[in-house]
Amino acid sequence: MNPLNYAGKREENDLREFFLAFYPLFVSFAQNYVQSRAVCEDVVQESFVAYLEQGRPFAGEYKTKAFLYKTVRNKCLNHLRHEQIHNLYAEVQSRRSQEEMHSEEFFIGSIVREEASLVIAQAIEALPAAEQRVLNMAVEGLSNQEVAERLGISINTVRTHKSRAYKALRVVLANLKLL
Questions:
Q1: Where are the alpha helices (DSSP H) in the chain?
Q2: Looking at domain 104-178, does it have CATH number 2.60.40.1180?
């Protein structure tokens, strides 16, 4: 079951047979390192791709399997290292977040943000409907031209609505500066 033909060129059929015959074996081997079957399957597939990318023939099934065993092991170890670093980072972030959440500054900051959001939402709701629509589209990132096209109004009308909305919001939100 050599994945190479006698002339040294890969034959697709032989390679497919080799893959199908040994894929479960390598997945099982990978599970000695990594618990997730899906990750193991990915690792084995990546290992077969690495084998194909070598571009040089291996002398028989023994050397091919040896290459794949080593590659699967190394890829599993790399995955575990990456996962360990990821978990360590998540733990540090979680610890930092918990410390921050217990601080007085976080508590006060959260209250201020929520109250400010409420005041802003109420101020926007108090605007006339046309100004609300224009302002909401502007907040979504639409240009004056895009807002005008969507609402079927002129660019100058869009500018006027935005100007009036911002002016009204400045008056209502002046109290937020104190916070």
A1: 12-30, 37-54, 61-102, 104-125, 129-139, 144-151, 155-173
A2: no
